[in-house]
Every structure is written in C-alpha cells, then in structure tokens.
Amino acid sequence: xxxxxxxxxxxxGTLEMLRRQLDxxxxxxxxxxxxxxxxxxxxxxxxxxxxxxLLGGYIDEGGASLDGAPSYLAxxxxxxxxxTAMQVAAGEVMWPVMGAIKWDRTYHAMIASxxxxxxxxxxxxxxxxxxxxxxxxxxxGVLAVLGLITSVAGFVVxxxxxxxxxxxxxxxxxxxSAGAKSEQGFxxxxxxxxxxxxxxxxxxFPVSNLxxxxxxxxxxxxxxHGVELCRMGALGFWDSSMLGHLAYLLAxxxxxxxxxxxxxxxxxxx
Amino acid sequence: xxxxxxxxxxxxxxxSDASSPTRPESMISARGLQKTFGTFEAVRGIDxxxxxxxxxxxxxxxxxxxxSTMRMVAAVSPPTGGELRVLGLDxxxxxxxxxxxxxxxPQEDTLDTELSVRENLLIYGRYFGLPRKDVAAKADELLTFxxxxxKRNEKVDNLSGGLKxxxxxxxxxxxxxxxxxxxxxxxxxDPQARHVLWDKLFRLKQQGVTLVLTTHYMDEAEQLCDRxxxxxxxxxxxxxxxxxxIREHSTREVAxxxxxxxxxxxxxxxxxxxxxxxxxxxxxxxxYTADGEEAIARVHERGLTPLAVLVRRSTLEDVFLRLTGxxxxx
Lengths: 270, 330
Fold this sequence. Notes:
The complex is a heterodimer of chains A (270) and B (330).
Chain A: H1 14-61, H2 72-92, H3 95-103, H4 106-111, H5 117-145, H6 152-179, H7 184-200, H8 212-220, H9 222-235, H10 241-268
Helix pairs in contact in A: 1-2, 1-5, 2-5, 2-6, 2-9, 5-6, 5-10, 6-9, 6-10, 9-10
Chain B: E1 26-37, E2 40-51, E3 55-59, H1 66-73, E4 81-86, H2 91-99, E5 102-105, H3 117-127, H4 132-145, H5 161-172, E6 179-183, H6 191-206, E7 210-215, H7 218-224, E8 227-232, E9 235-240, H8 242-249, E10 253-258, H9 264-271, E11 277-280, E12 285-289, H10 292-301, E13 308-313, H11 316-324
Parallel strand pairs in B: 3-7, 3-8, 5-6, 6-7
Antiparallel strand pairs in B: 1-2, 1-4, 8-9, 10-12, 10-13, 11-12
C-alpha cells in the first residue's frame, strides 16, 4: 500500500519546482544527446578548421588588422564560442517548446501538476542553458589547450561571455516560441536573424569593416556583445567596455525571461 | 489502495467538515461560475456542488461548456466571474496547492510519447514532489491495476489509443488525488477499451475516489455517475441522478415505430393521443409512454401497420435529446 497523497497549502518555491523537473530533463538529455552532440561538439570545429586554420592562412599572409589578435585563428576561434552558444540556445527553445505546447503537449501535462508557468519556463530555459554550458565548457577547454585562451581569468571572461550570449538568445526566442502558432517562424528567425548575425556581427571580421549604418546595426545585435566578451577573454585584454557588454546581454536576458513567462502564461492558462 | 491515510498531518483549515462531521466535505463548490473568451460566453453562470466520494458527471453536446468548466476546476483557467472553491480553496490564489491534490485526465493525451510507459509515471510523480522510492512503488502498483505491467518498458508512441488512455488515467492517480477529473475519458475508444476503462473507474469509485467526468456518452453517464448535470449553451438545464432525470424528463418506456420513408410526419397526428409525447424523426416515430406494448397494441387496433416496432426503456439519451435538442452542434 503506497500513499503518495499531498496536503497543505504551502507553495513550494521555484527552486524546489526546478528540482522536481530534474528527472524529466535528465531523461530528455539522455534520449537526445547523441543527436545534439554533432551540433554542440563537432560543428564548431568545422568552422575553426575551415575558417580559422585554412582561410586564416591566407588572411595572415595578407597582414590584416584584426583588433590586436596575433592570428586569424586567434581572432575567429573565441568568436565561435559565442556563435555556438547562440545556436545551441536558440535551437533548444524553438521546436522543442512548440512541441511541448502543440505536438506532445507535455507542457499541458506539467501545468496540470503543481508546477506553475514560471517553473516550466525556468525548467526549460535551465535545460537549454545546461546544454549551452556543456558545449561552451568543452569548446573553451580545447581552445585553452590549443593556447588560444591564455589565462584563467581570460577563460572565465570568455566563458561568462558565451553563457550570457546563450541566455540572451534563449530567453527572447523562448518568448517567441511560447506564443507562436506555427513553426514556420523558426525558419525565418534562422534565415533573417541567426545566420545574418553569425556572418556579420564581428565573428569573422572586425565590424569596423562595415560602413557606418551597418556597423551600428551590427553593434546593436546581442551576438556582437557576446563575441567581444569572448574575444576579450581569449586574447587577454579587457577594459571597462566589458561592463557595457555584460549589462547589454543581461538586460536582454531579463526582458526575455519576463516576456517568456508572460507569453507562456497566456498560452497555457486560458 | 488509493484511499490511504495521508502520511503527514493535513492543514486543519483544509478539512471543511472537521467541526461538523455530519456535513459531507465539499470538493467543488461553484456559484454563478462564468467563463468568457472574448465575446463568447462558454460558461454562463452555473452552480455546482460536489462532495467527497461522489461520482459526478457533466453531460452535454459539444460546445456546452463542459471542458471550460473542467479547466476552471482543474485550476488552469481563471474564472471570468462568479465564485469557485476546489477542495475548499480558491483556484486563483492556491492553484498549485489545489493541483497537487488533483488527478487530471485531459481530453487530448498529454503523454510524453518519446518516453516509456513507466517513465511517464515516474517523471510525472516527481512533479508532485514525491520521493523517487514512493513514486516507483506507486507506479508499479498503478501499472498492475491498469494491466499495463507487460507494456511498462514500451515507448508510448507504440501504444494503442485505449492503452494510452489507461496510462493517462494511471498517471493522473500517481499522487493519490482527492479528486479525479476526467474530461471525456473514453471518447474515440473502441467498445472493448471503453468497457475496460469503465471497470477501472468503477473500482476507483468503490474505493472512495471522488470522480468528476464530462461525457457525451449516455451509457457512460448512466454507468458511472451518481449525480449529473446536463449542460447546454453554457448553462445547466437539468440536474439529478440518472434515474431521477429519466423520471422527470422522460417516460418509463419508449415505443419506436418505423413506417415507410416520408410517412412519419403524417402519421404522427393519428397516434398522438396514445402517448404522453410523440416525437417525429425522419426514420421513425417515438411514442413516450409508461407502457410501450400497450401503446403498440392500440396502434395496431387503429389499423396501422408499422414495418418494425421496438419497445425499450427510456434512457438518459432521451432526456439528453429532449433537453438539448437534436440539432447538430458542429
């Protein structure tokens, strides 16, 4: 005879509610990690190889000015830390969020339990950030071994930059997905936001190469701030502008969380 | 099995009948409950009382407001107006606390199709803050009760509709709920699967679990519900036990007479006085009467020769159609 009956009106806090979701997200990770491992752990090295090493060979010969980086590889590799964080974070909160609302309806099962909307949002974002953390830890670790990150403090700065980049993408994209009626918008986000940012937000060339208006546009993107932070950490020289980048990414994340909770609440609690 | 004693002392404020043991404990109490979506009034001010141990049904055609009511009771849909108490608590303030003591079987399955049968139970139990050991024991108990033990490692994706429903109901019992909400639990199932589920639900009812269900199957309501309300257009149009509703809104028997196509309308007038009420359908005449055989004998006396006759007892379906009409909703 097993009694699992609850009693009392005490409302557990969000931390307790996150603890209750651990088994779910751990199971979710175990069943999908093989599929996600390619995007997370292999794909960044294709770029490092193709862009950093091979293309970089030509660029270094030409004596390009790379914001103080000693080689094109040293310039581009830390930036790829930020772009990878962006891609992993965004991917995790698009189709999976829509699936949990529309296809498998697992969010509807969750909201029928004591979990609240805010707990569900934090649980899923927490999982996305877990995947981002794992990815950038491995990536940054290998960069350090290759001598592309030069100090422990720099390693921390680069890591924080990459994690905040992930958060600054995960949260607003989650908000979008939570209210989206169909998955068609995701392709548009990838084509019109993620890929252009990947190409033009300073990962592969200094944004000063862009003309005036485009340069400001590039600097307004969260990815540029993330790339700058990662590069500062890896190259080992940073200044007070670092605080501006941190504040920018944090502000987007906080706004993104607020928007995500609001949008999911309107979707599930009707 | 499911009616076991709480492991911790419950908050005294939650036991509404603590001071007056003669008054049954209120599980759901609604007064003038309303739900509006934009300009559409889904629920237009209903009063409902459900007490502990009851099996209560919401009966009605599609769009009657049953599911909207259920979602409000399940504390996932804030009422637009009126008063609602579930387990003595206000769902607007204590949604999470209420949900921790509810079992919910939604109309559409919300199982995680990528997980195994047993994993679905284990993970869901954890949302209620239950220790892994307790959840595992409870899960195995439920798998046995719902005859799912053979399938426990099967991926949910591979299960039939009937098995998925059984798993959904099993999952809703993982926390030993005080109140089990079932929104159209057997819709879309084949007759065999429905009967298996009814058997399980009947056993739960006998164990003292309070059941609240919505359905548009009359036989389901007659089998399972002690008391029910008929909803139509967001309002309650009748309330009572299945038997009292039949008594009140229908006759003891119904004689069905089948004549040639197109003759039914004209013949209605000549048998009108033989029954309490005569209803004309495209393919038959229904004579609502206390004694069906007697009515048919009188029909023959008048020289009318129906192609086929049938005498049956009145069912909830007659009540339902009388109250909510025969027009298709959607």
